[in-house]
Design a protein that fits this description.
Layout: H1 52-67, H2 78-94, E1 97-105, E2 108-117, E3 121-131, H3 141-161, E4 167-174, H4 182-190, H5 193-197, E5 199-205, E6 216-217, H6 222-234, E7 240-241, H7 251-256, E8 261-265, H8 274-280, H9 304-321
Parallel strand pairs: 3-4, 3-5, 5-8, 6-7
Antiparallel strand pairs: 1-2, 2-4, 6-8
Helix pairs in contact: 1-2, 1-3, 2-3, 3-9
């Protein structure tokens, strides 16, 4: 996620607003766990189980890539391209049609990766994405290896399950988000009006495994907000509407283009309140992610339950939104 401090040349950057003061009245308090069993067959309305170990395997690989490339996976650095190549190789092997889009920012070449699952109505596209780059100060495993790995594992679950969606499925991994959503803005700006109109919704996942987590739902579109809130409520997990990430991630250019956006977030450098600790656990008075944009944002800087739960919610949303039933 883009930092809240001003960065030169950062488009679409908006000021943050204060966290909502009250909890959602309809939210229920509880916890969730992700089964470690193998994925069950998926129907049109039923996403498969995704073991958290499978998500963490991707994060371990991203950590190794950072370790081998100067400690980060930032735009213009070798670690970013190696991260993109890793994800692309997984998608290519699973049967996706992948496209690498190049752009230039701060004098360096950047890359977006877009993956299309064959089939589905091309006039109705369900799009899920995340940014893949880190800041230069660290490996960026929660920000945003977590979202990137979660989206990747959902995409791979589509392939493993043999799912045939009614709508067309597309997944994206964006470059240079930390410089001001440069990659996603470049992608949206290059879409024709006709192609924009075919995207029914864009779902964004930026930081979904924070070590002192909250469960935040994007509130920009009531239909998509309700979809996620209902999923969490059914599992007795309270949610709040996200304000910490307002305009600070890759949903912004899609939203600016008139495309409905939704998403999930587990918190960055805002401080967890007593009320939030009471409903979610964790430690009040500390940041949701004390290693946000720091060298300590490593593979140890994760909450497995939040990571697995949010990825399960992503899968459920992708399945439901892409089915006409």
């Amino acid at each position: 996620m883009l930092t809240s401090s001003t960065e030169l040349g950062a488009p679409h950057m908006r000021p943050r607003t204060h966290l909502a003061a009250a909890l959602l009245a309809a939210a229920l308090i509880g916890s969730s766990s992700i089964p470690a069993s193998a994925a069950r067959p998926a129907t049109a309305a039923d996403a498969p189980d995704i073991p958290v170990a499978d998500i963490k395997a991707h994060l371990d690989r991203l950590q190794s890539i950072a370790d081998a490339n100067g400690g980060n996976r930032a735009h213009g650095r070798s670690g970013y391209k190696a991260s993109l190549d890793y994800i692309k190789s997984k998608l290519d092997a699973a049967g996706y049609t992948t496209t690498v889009q190049r752009f230039t920012s701060n004098g360096s070449t950047g890359y977006n990766l877009v993956a299309d699952w064959p089939g589905g109505d091309p006039n109705h596209v369900v799009f899920a994405g995340s940014h893949l780059d880190s800041v230069t100060r660290g490996p960026g495993i929660n920000d945003n290896g977590s979202g990137s790995a979660g989206v990747l594992e959902v995409a791979l679950a589509v392939a493993r399950s043999g799912y045939k969606p009614d709508k067309h499925l597309r997944f994206g991994w964006w470059g240079a988000e930390e410089l001001g959503m440069v990659g996603s803005t470049n992608y949206v700006d290059k879409l024709s009006g006709a192609d924009r109109s075919k995207i029914d919704e864009y779902l964004n996942f930026d930081m979904i495994g924070s070590p002192n987590p909250g469960y935040f739902v994007y509130g920009y579109d009531s239909r998509l907000q309700g979809l996620f809130e209902n999923w969490f409520a059914a599992k007795n997990i309270a949610t709040e509407v996200d304000h910490e990430g307002d305009g600070r991630s890759d949903h912004a250019p899609f939203q600016d283009a008139g495309i409905p956006v939704g998403g999930l977030f587990s918190g960055a450098d805002y401080i967890k309140t007593d009320a939030q600790a009471a409903q979610w656990g964790g430690t009040a008075g500390q940041a949701f992610d004390a290693c946000y944009h720091q060298a300590c944002d490593t593979s140890k800087n994760l909450d497995d339950t939040a990571l697995g739960t949010n990825t399960a919610a992503i899968a459920s949303a992708v399945w439901k939104l892409s089915s006409n039933s």
